[in-house]
Amino acid sequence: MIVLFCAFLLIADSTQCVLLPTPPPTVMDVPNDNGHALDITWEPSHAESSGLVTAYEVWRSESRTGPFELRGATPPGLCEYRDRGDKDPASSNHFPSGRPYIYFIRTVGKNEQADSRYSAEVAATGQWYHKGKTPVLIGTLLFSALALYFVQIARKGKKLYIRPLAGISAVDEAIGRATEMGKPILYLLGSGSASGIATIASYAILGRVARKTAEYRTRLMVPCKDPVVMTVAQETVKGAYAEAGQPDAYDEDSVFYITSMQFAFVAAVSGIMLREKPATNFYMGSFYAESLFLAETGSSAGSIQISGTEQVAQIPFFVVATDYTLIGEELFAASAYLGGDPLLLGTLKAQDYAKAVLMFILAAGALSITLGWSWFAQLFKVAL
Fold first, then answer.
1. What pairs with residue 69 in β-bridges?
2. Is the dihedral of CA 164, 167, 168, 174 positive or negative?
3. Which CATH class is domain 23-123?
4. Please, what CATH class does the domain formed by 160-340 belong to?
5. CB-based burial of residue 84 (10 Å sphere; 0-12 exposed, 13-18 middle, 19+ buried)?
6. What digits encode the pLDDT tens for the residues 82-138?
7. Of 180 and 66, more confident
8. In degrees rounded to 5, what are phi and psi of residue 51?
9. What is the rounded CA–CA span in Å between residue 26 and residue 46?
10. Domains of the chain, residue spans
11. pTM
């Protein structure tokens, strides 16, 4: 009797160690992608609940005759895998689009393994349109329509209302103050490159300041940290003097290069401030650790100071040390304010309307979530 009982235990234990193959996996093309990935799913093994399964391996081949390569593995309980590769043919993990593949799942146990049957041939294909980003498309089309509408209105000569900014409104006042005091104006383009967005916006402001200084015959000083920035600034100031009808008043030495070393540039400009005592200082562009040094020196020299930068970390220093500050995107809006270009004015007006629409959507979204209306938030869901 004892012998029969022991034999029964051995037989029962041996049956528990047998891993039966899982059904063939289901392979599907990943939607809304560029065609270099497939999703593989399969049924869990019957032995998973007994703790006999250690992993599931995903094997792939271009034909049923092989050879098969291991693409990845998942732990017990996870019966899905995304086989993703690179678009570059030179990559070792190249995943060509449009090529059919066959998969099988290998269930790995502690002492054995079992292979499923082969899946059907499935090829990864790319889609020309990502359906999950429809809200982005709608928003882009609406903003483009607003921009085109306001640009056309501005080109027809209709005056567009632009919300006033204190820093921009003070530009003419600061130039007039320098003219009355008979002192120069100092303009700094920052430490950014000539192709930087903040530097390009600063060029537009510099052109407006230079036109006014040409009309009032006020001395303008533009020390530069980058030789390319200096070259563009020279052409900007020269063109502004020509537009003002004062080409002979342009001084080639008004725009000059100092050095590309950060704090050597700060020392040189600080010396200019203390010697020349400019009536107005403009800081427009990308500024970094030098911002507070320059602003404090200008303040001690008694200058009215107007600043603007897109560097968020430097804005607090300009706020406390200068008289007027253009915060963030206000620097880019200043070119539209001061230049009066219909294209810039129309775009700026469209941005204001787009911000109002976004604020309304945020308020409506917060209210809908509070009331439990999840459908409203789903309308604006964007897939990555």
1. 60
2. positive
3. mainly beta
4. alpha beta
5. middle
6. 999 998 888 888 898 889 999 999 999 888 899 999 999 999 998 888 888 888 999
7. 180
8. 80, 15
9. 18
10. 23-123, 160-340
11. 0.66
